[in-house]
Amino acid sequence: ELGKRAPRWIRDNEVTMCMKCKEPFNALTRRRHHCRACGHVVCWKCSDYKAHLEYDGNKLNKVCKDCYHVIIGCTDSEEKKKKGILEIESAEVSGNSVICSFLQYMEKSKPWQKAWCVIPKQEALVLYMYGAPQDVKALATIPLLGYTVDDTPRSADLPHSFKLTQSKSVHSFAADNEELKQKWLKVIHLAVKGETPECQNE
């Protein structure tokens, strides 16, 4: 179907990095562009290809590298490289997850920051953290097995927060409300013991 019908455009605010080369976007060097074939948000380097698209009267349109190779019918051997652990697309795991939502995250003495957190069904004992729901690479992963859960927030913390600790490693999270916090805790309490949690997504 590529190029035969107009794609659904991924919104700019749903990604923090190029969906092809995974370089982070910033105000100066990395402007966001849309591939006219697949609708993904890509940087200028990855949108520097043109192909004739059927849905647009066969006019030449800006497309990403992957779509360009598919449309002109040539394969790219580089794409066959095995993906690293962080290179699992957020949309891929969010759609097939035990639980996923935005949580506030704090590590050591850094400020709280918003992260799209996902526990995928195929790896129910690992927490993936993304900058945004459509990012193609995780910022970090936390293998939950063996962590201790502390769900009593201290006065300096955000109200619906909880901590994961293992030796010197401490990860603090906060949900937007108590209900969401309890959903996450239900999953995490099982995962830290090595038990596979039930799906919590509505």
Number of domains: 2
Beta strands, count: 11
Q: How many individual helices?
A: 3
Residue share in helices?
10-25%
Structure characterization notes:
It is found in: Cytoplasm, Cytoskeleton. Residues 96-193 form the PH domain. Residues 13-63 form the B box-type domain. The chain is an alpha+beta fold. The chain has two domains: 1-78, Zinc/RING finger domain, C3HC4 (zinc finger) (Herpes Virus-1); 90-193, Roll (PH-domain like), CATH 2.30.29. It has three helices and eleven strands, in the order E-E-E-E-H-H-E-E-E-E-E-E-E-H. The strands form three sheets. Strands 8-7-6-5-11-10-9 form a seven-stranded antiparallel sheet. Strands 1-2 form a two-stranded antiparallel sheet. Strands 3-4 form a two-stranded antiparallel ribbon. A hairpin with a 2-residue loop joins strand 10 (161-166) and strand 11 (169-174). The longest helix is centred in the last third of the chain and has 14 residues, at 178-191. Residues 76-81 have low confidence and may be disordered.
List the helices and strands and how they pair.
Elements: E1 33-34, E2 41-42, E3 49-53, E4 59-63, H1 65-71, H2 90-94, E5 97-107, E6 113-120, E7 126-130, E8 140-143, E9 148-150, E10 161-166, E11 169-174, H3 178-191
Antiparallel strand pairs: 1-2, 3-4, 5-6, 5-11, 6-7, 7-8, 9-10, 10-11
